[in-house]
Amino acid sequence: MSMTESQPRERTLESPRAPAPIIAARSVVKSFTTRGKESVILDGITLDINEGDFVTIVGPSGCGKTTFLQLIAGLQPMTAGSIAFDGVDIVVPPAGAVYVFQQYGKSVFPWRTVLGNVCFGLEGKGLSKAKREGIARDQLALVGLAGFEHHYPSQLSGGMQQRLAIARALAPGPRMLLMDEPFSALDALTRAKLQKLVLDIWQKLGITVVFVTHDIEEALLLSTRVIALHKSPANIDIDLAIDFPHPRNPLTLGEDSEFLAKRRTLLSSIYRQEGIEYDGGVM
Amino acid sequence: MKAAKKRLPGLALIVGLLVLWQLTVQFNLVDSPSVPTVTESVDALGKSIANGEMLTALGETLGRILIGYAIAVVLAVALGALMGTSRFVFYLLEPLTELLRPIPTAAYVPIAILLLGVGNEMKITVVAVACFFPVLLNTYGGVRSVDPILVDTGRTFGYKPFARLIKIVLPSALPEILTGMRVALGIALIVGIVSEMLAGNNGIGYLILDSQRIFQVPLMFAGIITLAIVGYFMNFIFVRLEAYFLRWRTAAGS
Ligand SMILES: Nc1ncnc2c1ncn2[C@@H]1O[C@H](COP(=O)(O)OP(=O)(O)O)[C@@H](O)[C@H]1O
Ligand SMILES: [Mg+2]
In a designed cystine with A43, which of A233, A242, A255, B28 is the match (CB 3.0 to 4.6 A)? Predict the structure, then answer.
Protein backbone atom coordinates (compact mmCIF):
# COMPACT_ATOMS: atom_id res chain seq x y z
CA MET A 1 0.00 0.00 0.00
CA SER A 2 1.27 3.35 -0.92
CA MET A 3 1.32 6.46 1.23
CA THR A 4 -0.87 8.35 -1.23
CA GLU A 5 -3.65 5.81 -0.84
CA SER A 6 -3.64 5.66 2.92
CA GLN A 7 -3.53 9.38 3.55
CA PRO A 8 -6.98 10.34 2.24
CA ARG A 9 -8.46 7.33 4.01
CA GLU A 10 -7.02 8.55 7.27
CA ARG A 11 -8.48 11.94 6.69
CA THR A 12 -11.97 10.61 6.01
CA LEU A 13 -11.71 8.60 9.21
CA GLU A 14 -10.53 11.65 11.10
CA SER A 15 -12.96 14.26 9.92
CA PRO A 16 -16.18 12.90 11.47
CA ARG A 17 -14.32 12.59 14.76
CA ALA A 18 -12.78 16.05 14.50
CA PRO A 19 -13.99 17.28 17.90
CA ALA A 20 -16.55 20.02 17.65
CA PRO A 21 -16.09 22.13 20.79
CA ILE A 22 -18.61 21.42 23.54
CA ILE A 23 -18.56 25.15 24.33
CA ALA A 24 -18.19 27.80 21.65
CA ALA A 25 -18.28 31.34 23.06
CA ARG A 26 -18.36 34.14 20.49
CA SER A 27 -17.74 37.80 21.41
CA VAL A 28 -19.51 37.43 24.74
CA VAL A 29 -20.30 40.76 26.33
CA LYS A 30 -21.86 41.15 29.74
CA SER A 31 -22.63 44.46 31.37
CA PHE A 32 -24.56 45.37 34.48
CA THR A 33 -26.54 48.55 34.93
CA THR A 34 -26.56 49.83 38.49
CA ARG A 35 -28.29 53.12 39.28
CA GLY A 36 -28.45 54.04 35.62
CA LYS A 37 -24.72 53.50 35.15
CA GLU A 38 -23.68 50.74 32.80
CA SER A 39 -20.44 48.92 33.51
CA VAL A 40 -19.04 46.37 31.09
CA ILE A 41 -17.74 43.26 32.88
CA LEU A 42 -16.96 40.86 30.03
CA ASP A 43 -15.52 42.46 26.94
CA GLY A 44 -16.30 40.23 23.97
CA ILE A 45 -14.77 36.92 25.06
CA THR A 46 -14.29 34.34 22.31
CA LEU A 47 -13.34 30.87 23.45
CA ASP A 48 -13.75 27.22 22.47
CA ILE A 49 -13.70 24.42 25.02
CA ASN A 50 -13.18 20.89 23.80
CA GLU A 51 -15.15 17.96 25.11
CA GLY A 52 -13.32 16.09 27.84
CA ASP A 53 -11.08 18.99 28.78
CA PHE A 54 -10.55 20.27 32.29
CA VAL A 55 -10.43 24.01 31.79
CA THR A 56 -9.73 26.32 34.70
CA ILE A 57 -10.38 30.04 34.68
CA VAL A 58 -8.25 32.17 36.98
CA GLY A 59 -8.03 35.91 37.38
CA PRO A 60 -8.09 38.75 39.88
CA SER A 61 -11.11 38.82 42.13
CA GLY A 62 -14.08 40.71 40.76
CA CYS A 63 -12.87 40.34 37.16
CA GLY A 64 -15.94 38.35 36.08
CA LYS A 65 -15.07 34.65 36.49
CA THR A 66 -18.35 33.79 38.20
CA THR A 67 -20.28 35.88 35.71
CA PHE A 68 -18.70 34.07 32.76
CA LEU A 69 -19.32 30.65 34.29
CA GLN A 70 -22.96 31.56 34.95
CA LEU A 71 -23.36 32.63 31.34
CA ILE A 72 -22.11 29.21 30.23
CA ALA A 73 -24.59 27.66 32.69
CA GLY A 74 -27.43 29.69 31.22
CA LEU A 75 -28.13 31.16 34.65
CA GLN A 76 -27.70 34.77 33.50
CA PRO A 77 -28.58 36.43 30.22
CA MET A 78 -25.69 37.87 28.22
CA THR A 79 -25.66 41.40 26.86
CA ALA A 80 -24.23 40.52 23.43
CA GLY A 81 -22.55 37.60 21.68
CA SER A 82 -23.42 33.95 21.99
CA ILE A 83 -22.36 30.76 23.68
CA ALA A 84 -23.22 27.43 22.09
CA PHE A 85 -23.33 24.22 24.11
CA ASP A 86 -22.85 21.28 21.78
CA GLY A 87 -23.75 23.50 18.82
CA VAL A 88 -26.94 24.90 20.34
CA ASP A 89 -27.09 28.51 21.53
CA ILE A 90 -27.62 28.75 25.26
CA VAL A 91 -30.73 30.68 26.28
CA VAL A 92 -31.88 28.61 29.26
CA PRO A 93 -29.74 26.32 31.44
CA PRO A 94 -28.78 23.52 29.02
CA ALA A 95 -29.54 19.92 29.91
CA GLY A 96 -26.18 18.18 30.19
CA ALA A 97 -24.41 20.96 32.06
CA VAL A 98 -24.68 21.32 35.83
CA TYR A 99 -23.42 24.30 37.80
CA VAL A 100 -21.87 23.71 41.23
CA PHE A 101 -22.17 26.82 43.39
CA GLN A 102 -19.36 28.36 45.36
CA GLN A 103 -21.69 28.67 48.37
CA TYR A 104 -22.42 24.93 48.58
CA GLY A 105 -23.99 25.40 52.03
CA LYS A 106 -26.73 27.52 50.44
CA SER A 107 -27.15 25.21 47.48
CA VAL A 108 -27.96 21.92 49.23
CA PHE A 109 -31.60 21.55 50.27
CA PRO A 110 -31.69 21.52 54.07
CA TRP A 111 -35.13 19.82 54.17
CA ARG A 112 -34.00 16.88 52.07
CA THR A 113 -31.84 14.06 53.32
CA VAL A 114 -28.48 13.42 51.68
CA LEU A 115 -30.11 10.77 49.49
CA GLY A 116 -33.04 13.08 48.72
CA ASN A 117 -30.65 15.83 47.66
CA VAL A 118 -28.87 13.55 45.19
CA CYS A 119 -32.23 12.37 43.83
CA PHE A 120 -33.21 15.98 43.05
CA GLY A 121 -31.72 16.05 39.56
CA LEU A 122 -33.30 12.68 38.72
CA GLU A 123 -36.90 13.59 39.44
CA GLY A 124 -39.51 14.30 36.80
CA LYS A 125 -37.73 12.11 34.26
CA GLY A 126 -39.96 9.04 34.49
CA LEU A 127 -37.53 7.03 36.61
CA SER A 128 -38.95 4.86 39.38
CA LYS A 129 -38.10 5.80 42.96
CA ALA A 130 -36.01 2.64 43.33
CA LYS A 131 -34.10 3.49 40.17
CA ARG A 132 -33.47 7.06 41.31
CA GLU A 133 -32.28 5.96 44.71
CA GLY A 134 -30.05 3.32 43.16
CA ILE A 135 -28.32 5.93 41.00
CA ALA A 136 -28.10 8.30 43.96
CA ARG A 137 -26.48 5.64 46.15
CA ASP A 138 -23.88 5.00 43.46
CA GLN A 139 -23.03 8.69 43.30
CA LEU A 140 -22.78 8.91 47.08
CA ALA A 141 -20.40 5.96 47.08
CA LEU A 142 -18.36 7.65 44.35
CA VAL A 143 -17.85 10.80 46.47
CA GLY A 144 -17.29 8.87 49.70
CA LEU A 145 -20.63 9.58 51.37
CA ALA A 146 -21.93 6.01 51.55
CA GLY A 147 -23.57 5.52 54.94
CA PHE A 148 -24.79 9.11 55.18
CA GLU A 149 -27.90 8.62 53.02
CA HIS A 150 -30.36 9.45 55.77
CA HIS A 151 -28.49 12.35 57.32
CA TYR A 152 -29.61 15.90 56.78
CA PRO A 153 -27.16 18.46 55.32
CA SER A 154 -27.03 20.29 58.66
CA GLN A 155 -25.42 17.16 60.10
CA LEU A 156 -22.54 17.27 57.59
CA SER A 157 -19.25 19.17 57.67
CA GLY A 158 -18.47 21.72 54.96
CA GLY A 159 -16.33 19.27 53.03
CA MET A 160 -19.09 16.65 53.15
CA GLN A 161 -21.68 19.18 52.00
CA GLN A 162 -19.47 19.94 49.00
CA ARG A 163 -19.14 16.21 48.28
CA LEU A 164 -22.93 16.05 48.44
CA ALA A 165 -23.23 18.93 45.97
CA ILE A 166 -20.85 17.11 43.62
CA ALA A 167 -22.75 13.80 43.91
CA ARG A 168 -26.01 15.61 43.22
CA ALA A 169 -24.49 17.32 40.16
CA LEU A 170 -23.21 14.01 38.80
CA ALA A 171 -26.44 12.05 39.31
CA PRO A 172 -28.21 13.08 36.08
CA GLY A 173 -25.09 12.08 34.12
CA PRO A 174 -24.08 15.52 32.82
CA ARG A 175 -21.52 15.96 30.05
CA MET A 176 -20.15 19.05 31.69
CA LEU A 177 -19.64 20.31 35.24
CA LEU A 178 -19.26 24.02 35.92
CA MET A 179 -17.57 24.53 39.27
CA ASP A 180 -17.16 27.98 40.81
CA GLU A 181 -14.38 28.07 43.41
CA PRO A 182 -15.76 24.88 44.91
CA PHE A 183 -13.03 24.46 47.50
CA SER A 184 -12.25 28.05 48.45
CA ALA A 185 -14.10 27.83 51.77
CA LEU A 186 -12.47 24.57 52.88
CA ASP A 187 -9.38 23.95 55.00
CA ALA A 188 -6.19 22.88 53.23
CA LEU A 189 -6.45 19.18 54.00
CA THR A 190 -10.11 18.91 53.01
CA ARG A 191 -9.30 20.86 49.87
CA ALA A 192 -6.50 18.44 48.97
CA LYS A 193 -8.87 15.49 49.40
CA LEU A 194 -11.54 17.05 47.23
CA GLN A 195 -9.03 18.03 44.55
CA LYS A 196 -8.09 14.39 44.26
CA LEU A 197 -11.75 13.40 44.22
CA VAL A 198 -12.58 15.78 41.38
CA LEU A 199 -9.52 14.69 39.42
CA ASP A 200 -10.45 11.01 39.87
CA ILE A 201 -14.05 11.67 38.83
CA TRP A 202 -12.99 13.65 35.77
CA GLN A 203 -10.64 10.84 34.67
CA LYS A 204 -13.15 8.11 35.41
CA LEU A 205 -16.19 9.71 33.76
CA GLY A 206 -14.45 11.57 30.94
CA ILE A 207 -16.70 14.60 31.38
CA THR A 208 -15.79 18.19 30.60
CA VAL A 209 -15.07 20.39 33.59
CA VAL A 210 -14.96 24.17 33.60
CA PHE A 211 -13.51 25.23 36.92
CA VAL A 212 -12.94 28.61 38.53
CA THR A 213 -10.37 29.20 41.22
CA HIS A 214 -8.05 31.91 42.49
CA ASP A 215 -5.55 29.24 43.55
CA ILE A 216 -2.94 28.95 40.77
CA GLU A 217 -1.48 25.70 42.11
CA GLU A 218 -4.90 24.13 42.22
CA ALA A 219 -5.44 25.22 38.62
CA LEU A 220 -2.16 23.67 37.49
CA LEU A 221 -2.74 20.46 39.40
CA LEU A 222 -6.22 19.82 37.99
CA SER A 223 -6.37 21.27 34.49
CA THR A 224 -5.53 20.42 30.92
CA ARG A 225 -5.82 24.12 30.16
CA VAL A 226 -5.70 27.27 32.25
CA ILE A 227 -7.16 30.57 31.11
CA ALA A 228 -6.17 33.72 32.97
CA LEU A 229 -8.51 36.67 32.60
CA HIS A 230 -7.54 40.28 32.93
CA LYS A 231 -10.03 42.68 34.41
CA SER A 232 -12.05 45.85 33.82
CA PRO A 233 -13.42 44.71 31.46
CA ALA A 234 -12.41 41.08 31.37
CA ASN A 235 -10.93 39.23 28.47
CA ILE A 236 -8.43 36.44 28.01
CA ASP A 237 -4.95 37.42 29.16
CA ILE A 238 -3.19 34.04 29.02
CA ASP A 239 -4.33 30.70 27.56
CA LEU A 240 -2.02 27.90 28.68
CA ALA A 241 -2.14 24.22 27.75
CA ILE A 242 -1.19 22.09 30.75
CA ASP A 243 0.08 18.69 29.67
CA PHE A 244 1.55 17.14 32.81
CA PRO A 245 0.93 13.42 32.63
CA HIS A 246 -1.73 11.75 34.78
CA PRO A 247 -1.92 10.60 37.48
CA ARG A 248 -0.60 13.83 38.90
CA ASN A 249 1.00 13.90 42.29
CA PRO A 250 0.76 17.34 43.89
CA LEU A 251 3.86 16.68 45.99
CA THR A 252 6.25 16.04 43.11
CA LEU A 253 4.42 18.21 40.59
CA GLY A 254 4.96 21.21 42.85
CA GLU A 255 8.72 20.82 42.39
CA ASP A 256 8.62 20.33 38.62
CA SER A 257 10.43 23.15 36.82
CA GLU A 258 7.78 23.44 34.11
CA PHE A 259 5.12 23.64 36.82
CA LEU A 260 7.04 26.44 38.50
CA ALA A 261 7.48 28.31 35.22
CA LYS A 262 3.76 28.13 34.46
CA ARG A 263 2.92 29.13 38.00
CA ARG A 264 5.15 32.19 37.61
CA THR A 265 3.53 33.14 34.30
CA LEU A 266 0.01 32.93 35.73
CA LEU A 267 0.83 34.59 39.04
CA SER A 268 2.59 37.46 37.35
CA SER A 269 -0.52 38.11 35.26
CA ILE A 270 -2.59 38.43 38.41
CA TYR A 271 0.06 40.32 40.43
CA ARG A 272 0.51 42.82 37.62
CA GLN A 273 -3.19 43.61 37.57
CA GLU A 274 -3.53 43.78 41.31
CA GLY A 275 -0.58 46.19 41.39
CA ILE A 276 1.54 43.89 43.54
CA GLU A 277 5.14 44.71 42.71
CA TYR A 278 8.42 43.46 44.08
CA ASP A 279 11.95 44.76 43.63
CA GLY A 280 13.23 43.54 40.33
CA GLY A 281 9.74 43.36 38.83
CA VAL A 282 7.21 40.56 38.97
CA MET A 283 8.60 38.45 36.18
CA MET B 1 -38.42 11.67 83.06
CA LYS B 2 -36.56 14.97 83.10
CA ALA B 3 -39.11 16.73 80.92
CA ALA B 4 -41.90 15.47 83.20
CA LYS B 5 -40.07 16.83 86.24
CA LYS B 6 -39.76 20.24 84.65
CA ARG B 7 -43.49 20.30 83.99
CA LEU B 8 -44.42 19.46 87.58
CA PRO B 9 -44.54 23.04 89.00
CA GLY B 10 -46.77 24.21 86.13
CA LEU B 11 -49.22 21.36 86.68
CA ALA B 12 -49.16 21.95 90.43
CA LEU B 13 -50.11 25.59 89.89
CA ILE B 14 -53.14 24.61 87.79
CA VAL B 15 -54.27 22.08 90.39
CA GLY B 16 -53.69 24.65 93.13
CA LEU B 17 -55.82 27.26 91.36
CA LEU B 18 -58.62 24.73 90.81
CA VAL B 19 -58.53 23.86 94.52
CA LEU B 20 -58.59 27.57 95.36
CA TRP B 21 -61.59 28.08 93.04
CA GLN B 22 -63.37 25.11 94.59
CA LEU B 23 -62.74 26.19 98.20
CA THR B 24 -63.49 29.90 97.79
CA VAL B 25 -66.86 29.12 96.23
CA GLN B 26 -67.66 26.27 98.59
CA PHE B 27 -67.00 28.39 101.71
CA ASN B 28 -68.78 31.42 100.26
CA LEU B 29 -65.66 33.55 100.13
CA VAL B 30 -66.84 34.71 96.72
CA ASP B 31 -70.05 36.66 97.07
CA SER B 32 -71.62 35.96 93.71
CA PRO B 33 -74.13 33.14 93.62
CA SER B 34 -73.46 32.83 89.90
CA VAL B 35 -70.08 31.14 90.25
CA PRO B 36 -70.37 27.37 90.54
CA THR B 37 -67.76 25.16 92.13
CA VAL B 38 -65.31 23.15 90.05
CA THR B 39 -67.16 19.98 90.87
CA GLU B 40 -70.50 21.46 89.79
CA SER B 41 -68.95 22.59 86.51
CA VAL B 42 -67.34 19.22 85.87
CA ASP B 43 -70.62 17.58 86.76
CA ALA B 44 -72.43 19.75 84.20
CA LEU B 45 -69.75 18.87 81.65
CA GLY B 46 -70.23 15.15 82.28
CA LYS B 47 -74.03 15.44 81.95
CA SER B 48 -73.81 17.53 78.77
CA ILE B 49 -71.47 14.98 77.25
CA ALA B 50 -73.73 12.12 78.32
CA ASN B 51 -76.85 13.66 76.79
CA GLY B 52 -74.93 14.53 73.61
CA GLU B 53 -75.48 18.27 73.91
CA MET B 54 -71.84 19.23 74.32
CA LEU B 55 -70.42 16.94 71.63
CA THR B 56 -73.05 18.02 69.11
CA ALA B 57 -72.19 21.66 69.76
CA LEU B 58 -68.47 20.87 69.57
CA GLY B 59 -68.93 19.09 66.26
CA GLU B 60 -70.80 22.05 64.79
CA THR B 61 -68.14 24.47 65.97
CA LEU B 62 -65.12 22.41 64.94
CA GLY B 63 -66.59 21.54 61.55
CA ARG B 64 -67.06 25.19 60.63
CA ILE B 65 -63.70 26.23 62.05
CA LEU B 66 -61.76 23.55 60.21
CA ILE B 67 -63.51 24.15 56.87
CA GLY B 68 -62.94 27.91 57.12
CA TYR B 69 -59.35 27.34 58.18
CA ALA B 70 -58.64 24.93 55.34
CA ILE B 71 -60.11 27.28 52.75
CA ALA B 72 -58.01 30.15 54.14
CA VAL B 73 -54.79 28.12 54.13
CA VAL B 74 -55.21 26.92 50.55
CA LEU B 75 -56.08 30.37 49.19
CA ALA B 76 -53.50 32.23 51.27
CA VAL B 77 -50.64 29.88 50.37
CA ALA B 78 -51.53 30.07 46.68
CA LEU B 79 -51.86 33.86 46.66
CA GLY B 80 -48.86 34.29 48.96
CA ALA B 81 -46.72 32.20 46.62
CA LEU B 82 -47.85 34.39 43.73
CA MET B 83 -47.14 37.60 45.66
CA GLY B 84 -43.78 36.26 46.76
CA THR B 85 -42.63 35.30 43.28
CA SER B 86 -44.11 38.09 41.16
CA ARG B 87 -43.03 41.64 41.92
CA PHE B 88 -45.99 42.94 39.93
CA VAL B 89 -48.56 40.97 41.93
CA PHE B 90 -46.80 41.94 45.15
CA TYR B 91 -46.92 45.68 44.47
CA LEU B 92 -50.48 45.31 43.19
CA LEU B 93 -51.86 43.58 46.27
CA GLU B 94 -49.60 44.56 49.17
CA PRO B 95 -51.21 47.99 49.81
CA LEU B 96 -54.67 46.41 49.80
CA THR B 97 -53.71 43.65 52.22
CA GLU B 98 -52.02 46.16 54.51
CA LEU B 99 -55.25 48.19 54.53
CA LEU B 100 -57.58 45.24 55.21
CA ARG B 101 -55.38 43.34 57.63
CA PRO B 102 -55.68 45.64 60.68
CA ILE B 103 -59.52 45.52 60.64
CA PRO B 104 -60.53 43.47 63.71
CA THR B 105 -62.14 40.32 62.40
CA ALA B 106 -65.24 40.69 64.57
CA ALA B 107 -66.04 43.77 62.48
CA TYR B 108 -66.55 41.52 59.46
CA VAL B 109 -69.38 39.66 61.19
CA PRO B 110 -72.11 42.31 60.61
CA ILE B 111 -71.17 42.56 56.91
CA ALA B 112 -71.09 38.80 56.61
CA ILE B 113 -74.52 38.53 58.28
CA LEU B 114 -75.92 41.06 55.80
CA LEU B 115 -74.50 39.19 52.85
CA LEU B 116 -74.71 35.57 53.96
CA GLY B 117 -77.24 35.39 56.79
CA VAL B 118 -76.61 33.74 60.13
CA GLY B 119 -75.87 30.17 59.02
CA ASN B 120 -72.81 28.09 58.29
CA GLU B 121 -71.79 30.08 55.20
CA MET B 122 -71.44 33.27 57.23
CA LYS B 123 -69.43 31.65 60.03
CA ILE B 124 -67.14 29.69 57.70
CA THR B 125 -66.51 32.84 55.67
CA VAL B 126 -65.69 34.92 58.73
CA VAL B 127 -63.26 32.27 59.99
CA ALA B 128 -61.67 32.01 56.55
CA VAL B 129 -61.23 35.78 56.21
CA ALA B 130 -59.71 35.99 59.69
CA CYS B 131 -57.28 33.12 59.06
CA PHE B 132 -56.35 34.33 55.59
CA PHE B 133 -54.11 37.27 56.48
CA PRO B 134 -51.60 35.69 58.87
CA VAL B 135 -51.06 32.80 56.45
CA LEU B 136 -50.80 35.16 53.47
CA LEU B 137 -48.29 37.47 55.14
CA ASN B 138 -46.08 34.65 56.34
CA THR B 139 -46.25 32.84 53.01
CA TYR B 140 -45.13 35.76 50.90
CA GLY B 141 -42.58 36.74 53.52
CA GLY B 142 -41.15 33.23 53.46
CA VAL B 143 -41.27 32.98 49.69
CA ARG B 144 -39.54 36.32 49.21
CA SER B 145 -36.72 35.33 51.53
CA VAL B 146 -35.90 32.06 49.74
CA ASP B 147 -32.19 32.12 48.90
CA PRO B 148 -31.74 32.79 45.16
CA ILE B 149 -28.97 30.18 45.10
CA LEU B 150 -31.56 27.49 45.93
CA VAL B 151 -33.72 28.68 43.06
CA ASP B 152 -30.73 28.78 40.68
CA THR B 153 -29.85 25.26 41.78
CA GLY B 154 -33.26 24.22 40.53
CA ARG B 155 -32.62 26.05 37.25
CA THR B 156 -29.28 24.36 36.60
CA PHE B 157 -31.04 21.00 37.01
CA GLY B 158 -33.56 22.07 34.40
CA TYR B 159 -36.54 22.73 36.68
CA LYS B 160 -39.22 25.00 35.23
CA PRO B 161 -40.84 27.78 37.33
CA PHE B 162 -43.82 25.75 38.60
CA ALA B 163 -41.62 22.77 39.51
CA ARG B 164 -39.25 25.13 41.32
CA LEU B 165 -42.20 26.56 43.25
CA ILE B 166 -43.33 23.12 44.40
CA LYS B 167 -39.93 21.51 44.98
CA ILE B 168 -37.86 24.44 46.22
CA VAL B 169 -39.72 27.63 47.05
CA LEU B 170 -42.57 26.25 49.14
CA PRO B 171 -40.45 23.72 51.09
CA SER B 172 -37.95 26.47 51.79
CA ALA B 173 -40.72 28.80 52.99
CA LEU B 174 -42.48 26.06 54.98
CA PRO B 175 -41.23 27.21 58.41
CA GLU B 176 -42.77 30.64 57.84
CA ILE B 177 -45.95 29.19 56.33
CA LEU B 178 -46.40 26.94 59.36
CA THR B 179 -45.87 29.88 61.70
CA GLY B 180 -48.69 31.70 59.92
CA MET B 181 -50.86 28.59 60.08
CA ARG B 182 -50.27 28.28 63.81
CA VAL B 183 -51.28 31.89 64.45
CA ALA B 184 -54.32 31.40 62.21
CA LEU B 185 -55.42 28.28 64.10
CA GLY B 186 -55.74 30.24 67.34
CA ILE B 187 -57.63 32.98 65.51
CA ALA B 188 -59.97 30.41 63.94
CA LEU B 189 -61.13 29.20 67.34
CA ILE B 190 -61.71 32.73 68.65
CA VAL B 191 -63.54 33.94 65.57
CA GLY B 192 -65.58 30.77 65.23
CA ILE B 193 -66.85 31.12 68.80
CA VAL B 194 -67.49 34.88 68.51
CA SER B 195 -69.50 34.39 65.32
CA GLU B 196 -71.64 31.80 67.11
CA MET B 197 -72.22 34.21 69.99
CA LEU B 198 -73.27 36.99 67.62
CA ALA B 199 -75.57 34.98 65.38
CA GLY B 200 -77.27 31.64 65.01
CA ASN B 201 -78.45 29.00 67.44
CA ASN B 202 -75.84 26.27 67.66
CA GLY B 203 -72.22 25.55 68.40
CA ILE B 204 -70.29 25.97 71.64
CA GLY B 205 -70.25 29.76 71.40
CA TYR B 206 -74.04 29.78 71.34
CA LEU B 207 -74.20 27.16 74.13
CA ILE B 208 -72.03 29.30 76.41
CA LEU B 209 -74.00 32.47 75.76
CA ASP B 210 -77.37 30.74 76.00
CA SER B 211 -76.61 29.01 79.29
CA GLN B 212 -75.44 32.34 80.71
CA ARG B 213 -78.75 33.95 79.66
CA ILE B 214 -80.86 31.23 81.28
CA PHE B 215 -78.64 31.07 84.39
CA GLN B 216 -77.36 27.57 83.77
CA VAL B 217 -74.01 28.78 84.98
CA PRO B 218 -72.38 25.34 85.49
CA LEU B 219 -73.15 24.50 81.84
CA MET B 220 -71.62 27.79 80.77
CA PHE B 221 -68.44 26.86 82.61
CA ALA B 222 -68.59 23.37 81.11
CA GLY B 223 -68.54 25.00 77.66
CA ILE B 224 -65.56 27.13 78.60
CA ILE B 225 -63.70 24.10 80.00
CA THR B 226 -64.42 22.25 76.76
CA LEU B 227 -62.98 25.13 74.75
CA ALA B 228 -59.85 25.16 76.89
CA ILE B 229 -59.34 21.43 76.35
CA VAL B 230 -60.08 21.62 72.61
CA GLY B 231 -57.80 24.63 72.16
CA TYR B 232 -55.05 22.85 74.01
CA PHE B 233 -55.28 19.71 71.87
CA MET B 234 -55.57 21.62 68.60
CA ASN B 235 -52.33 23.41 69.42
CA PHE B 236 -50.74 20.19 70.68
CA ILE B 237 -51.51 18.36 67.42
CA PHE B 238 -50.32 21.31 65.38
CA VAL B 239 -47.00 21.53 67.23
CA ARG B 240 -46.47 17.81 66.71
CA LEU B 241 -47.17 18.08 62.97
CA GLU B 242 -44.92 21.13 62.72
CA ALA B 243 -42.08 19.28 64.45
CA TYR B 244 -42.55 16.39 62.03
CA PHE B 245 -42.50 18.54 58.91
CA LEU B 246 -39.54 20.57 60.15
CA ARG B 247 -37.61 17.63 61.59
CA TRP B 248 -34.65 18.55 59.38
CA ARG B 249 -34.24 21.70 61.45
CA THR B 250 -33.78 19.92 64.74
CA ALA B 251 -31.60 17.16 63.29
CA ALA B 252 -28.17 17.68 64.82
CA GLY B 253 -25.20 15.48 65.59
CA SER B 254 -25.51 12.03 64.07
N1 LIG C 1 -25.89 41.19 39.64
C2 LIG C 1 -24.89 42.08 39.52
N3 LIG C 1 -25.17 43.40 39.44
C4 LIG C 1 -24.18 44.31 39.31
N5 LIG C 1 -22.87 44.02 39.26
C6 LIG C 1 -22.53 42.73 39.34
C7 LIG C 1 -23.50 41.69 39.48
N8 LIG C 1 -22.88 40.49 39.55
C9 LIG C 1 -21.56 40.78 39.46
N10 LIG C 1 -21.35 42.10 39.33
C11 LIG C 1 -20.04 42.76 39.19
O12 LIG C 1 -19.36 42.12 38.16
C13 LIG C 1 -17.99 42.00 38.47
C14 LIG C 1 -17.55 40.56 38.32
O15 LIG C 1 -18.15 39.79 39.34
P16 LIG C 1 -17.84 38.24 39.47
O17 LIG C 1 -18.17 37.57 38.19
O18 LIG C 1 -18.55 37.76 40.68
O19 LIG C 1 -16.27 38.25 39.71
P20 LIG C 1 -15.30 37.06 40.17
O21 LIG C 1 -16.08 35.81 40.24
O22 LIG C 1 -14.22 37.05 39.14
O23 LIG C 1 -14.74 37.46 41.50
C24 LIG C 1 -17.80 42.55 39.87
O25 LIG C 1 -17.27 43.85 39.77
C26 LIG C 1 -19.19 42.60 40.42
O27 LIG C 1 -19.33 43.67 41.30
MG1 LIG D 1 -16.55 34.59 41.87
Answer: A233
